[in-house]
Write a structure and sequence with these properties.
alpha/beta, two-stranded antiparallel sheet, 204 residues, five-stranded parallel β-sheet
Length: 204
């Protein structure tokens, strides 16, 4: 089994990179574990308190569960992936069954910040993008997909997203084996990653 970690700042184009990689493989070959599914359950807090949480800090993730799930998949055991809602900021009672496959992709802004998780990765990737481009994508995404106003997005960007990016996410780039500038627009970088994964599948 090959474990690939793909990190990068909010709005850097990670999701586009992941989609373009997965599109080159059969469903039974690759599975995706989004970091966002492993945000800690905050159902004990009121909605107003939940919406003020810092989701860009490593402490917001239940790393132990994510690590356990990767270990289980490596040992050919199926897992139950959590479902997390950005609208309610809590986990669903339902889960998603995930079976072991030849390639596991872990994607999220903070996945290279955790040493234990990094040690489980065979390839570590950082998707890089200009800060203005990232902010533009964040505004578009959060207003459309997460129901936030532009002002709310900008306030959150200034108070948590940018400071956390500078403190945790950007420094994690030094752990990357592969850096892909310009996100999903970097066709060469994506081809390199796809080639590495295909080589692994051919050798296994």
């Amino acid at each position: 089994m090959l474990v690939v970690g793909i990190a990068g700042g909010t709005g850097s184009g990670k999701t586009t990179v992941v989609k373009k990689i997965i599109s080159q493989f059969q469903d039974e070959e690759v599975t995706l574990l989004p970091q966002d599914s492993y945000y800690k359950d905050n159902s004990h807090l009121k909605l107003e308190e939940r919406q003020k949480l810092n989701f860009d800090h490593p402490d917001s993730i239940e790393w132990s569960l994510l690590v356990d799930h990767i270990v289980d998949l490596r040992h050919d055991k199926a897992i139950q992936q959590p479902i997390y809602s950005y609208l309610t900021c809590v986990r669903s009672d339902e889960t998603i069954p995930v079976n072991p496959k030849q390639v596991i992709i872990i994607e999220g802004i903070l996945v290279l910040t955790n040493p234990e998780l990094r040690d489980l990765m065979d390839i570590k990737v950082y998707v890089d993008a200009d800060s203005d481009d990232r902010l533009s994508r964040v505004i578009t995404r959060d207003t459309i997909e997460r129901g936030r106003s532009v002002n709310a997005v900008l306030d959150r960007y200034a108070s948590t997203v940018k400071p956390m990016h500078l403190e945790f996410i950007e420094p994690s780039k030094r752990y990357a084996d592969v850096i892909i500038p310009q996100g999903g627009e970097n066709k060469v970088g994506i081809r390199v990653l796809v080639s590495l994964i295909k080589q692994h599948l051919a050798d296994s």
